[in-house]
Write a structure and sequence with these properties.
It contains 9 helices and 10 strands. The protein has about 260 residues and is an alpha/beta fold. The protein has a domain at about 5-85 and about 160-260: 3-Layer(aba) Sandwich (Rossmann fold). The two termini are about 30 Å apart. The mean pLDDT is about 90. It binds adenosine-5'-diphosphate (ADP) and magnesium ion (MG).
């Protein structure tokens, strides 16, 4: 029996006359990787911000871990937010801090009583997980884009969240580096039993890591289902977006081979 971890019903959000989300429905299950796919400006980031409570929806309902988010005050959301990790576009690392301090940030913020040697051990463990040992003292500004994403991933999972949200995790990376990030996301999801919600316009990413894809078009979910069903979807906007190669199954597959590899 699938357990629903996020339930979105009839969600609306406008900015003045710009209707960005028009009655979005979406259910996300525990342990799955769900990718919200859509073109630029389709409302993906707005949807993610509404789910994470960083933006207030106009109407509708979002139940996250059983708690209603819509209409709640920022401070009421803190305990819920602690159970989630967020990786935003650009990684949002602190440029003025080195790698160690960036990752240790969450422990200092949310686990103030944790002894320093334990914090150090945790940070080291996380750097091993993201395959970046020995870079603690480096400033994040001096790292390559791919390394910055790995550090940001380590930080996002540091608090052992049940859910992790990613906004365009591969933007700005070359295809090979982007693939190493997908593998890592896949690996983290499985190893740490995390539910992953990814918003992206990266079709290869979606076809590679998603258990299910939700396609957002002009503020509406026009398709929700597994990758193979998306290939068969006849919605005009979906067909135009994913293109003939992906439709024909010539590219992208969430495959067994990838599991367990990083
Ligand atoms: N804070 C904001 N104020 C006004 N309009 C916004 C704001 N954030 C997003 N929008 C508008 O919402 C629409 C969807 O944006 P966004 O969710 O960022 O798209 P994307 O799918 O590329 O992530 C765009 O038209 C954008 O201009
Ligand atoms: Mg966006």
């Amino acid at each position: 029996m699938k357990e629903t971890i996020i339930e979105i019903r009839n969600l609306h959000k406008s900015f003045g006359t710009n209707r960005v989300l028009s009655g979005v429905d979406l259910e996300i299950f525990k342990g799955e990787t769900l990718v919200v796919l859509g073109g630029s400006g389709s409302g993906k980031s707005v949807l993610l911000k509404c789910i994470t409570g960083l933006m207030t929806a106009d109407s509708g309902s979002i139940r996250l871990l059983g708690e209603e988010i819509v209409g709640r005050e920022e401070r009421e959301l803190l305990p819920i937010r602690k159970k989630t990790g967020i990786l935003f576009q650009g990684g949002a690392l602190f440029d003025s801090m080195n790698v160690f301090d960036n990752i240790a940030f969450g422990f200092h913020e949310y686990a103030k009583d944790m002894p320093q040697d334990q914090v150090e051990a945790e940070v080291m463990r996380l750097l091993e997980v993201v395959k970046l040992p020995d870079i603690c003292d480096k400033m994040t500004a001096d790292l390559s884009g791919g390394m910055q994403k790995r550090v940001a991933l380590a930080r996002a999972v540091s608090m052992k969240p049940g859910i992790i949200f990613y906004d365009e995790p591969t933007t700005g990376l070359d295809p090979q580096t982007a693939r190493s990030i997908y593998r890592l996301m896949n690996d983290l999801g499985q190893r740490l039993f995390i539910t992953s919600v990814v918003v992206s316009h990266d079709i290869e990413l979606a076809f590679t890591i998603a258990d299910r894809i939700a396609f957002l078009k002009d503020g509406e979910m026009v398709f929700v289902g597994p990758v193979d069903e998306l290939r068969k979807c006849t919605h005009e906007g979906v067909c135009a977006f994913i293109g003939p190669f992906y439709r024909a199954g010539m590219m992208g597959h969430k495959n067994e081979e990838m599991k367990g590899k990083t």
